[in-house]
Amino acid sequence: MRVAFFDRDGTIIEDYPDHEWTGINHPEFIDDSINTLKEVIEKGYKIIIITNQYIINEGYITIGQYHDINNQFKSELTRQGIELLDVFYCPHGKDEGCTCIKPNIGMIKQAIHKYPEINLEESFMIGDSAVDVELAINMGIKSFGIGVGSNYKKENIYQLNTIKDLIPYI
């Protein structure tokens, strides 16, 4: 199974400074993100969300707030005809030393454990931060970084300006 591992905040929906998440009640989708997800599915990929949510354990939002935003996120995607295979999130603070916070590989390992048919050689990671690209490097998979700069001059690492720039590469 080919999987497109997507970051959520800043890639599919808007991201905010940590302290502003406290007052966010509804996800706002980034331009072209829904159409891009549809095209990725049409190209034969399943979509798994891999998202750091350290703002939970660092006290900016509650676990309930996270689930409320994420349920709205998933409901809107379903309404748009987009089926997610799964969502994996890390609630741990940046200094907790967990193995799941990106760029650590814990969330992708969880996905592989739950879905052993995932073929990493045919899968990729896309996100808007260095930790997304570094996670892909740590897993040895193709990566697409949205606006993360040109620090990554390695094979299988592609720099994008926006999410819609992904489609020609897959």
TrEMBL record:
GO biological process: carbohydrate metabolic process
Residue numbers binding Mg(2+): 7, 9, 128
Main location: cytoplasm
Compartment(s) of residence: Cytoplasm
One GO CC annotation: cytoplasm
PANTHER family xref list: D-GLYCERO-BETA-D-MANNO-HEPTOSE-1,7-BISPHOSPHATE 7-PHOSPHATASE
Protein name as catalogued: D,D-heptose 1,7-bisphosphate phosphatase
Species: Salibacterium salarium
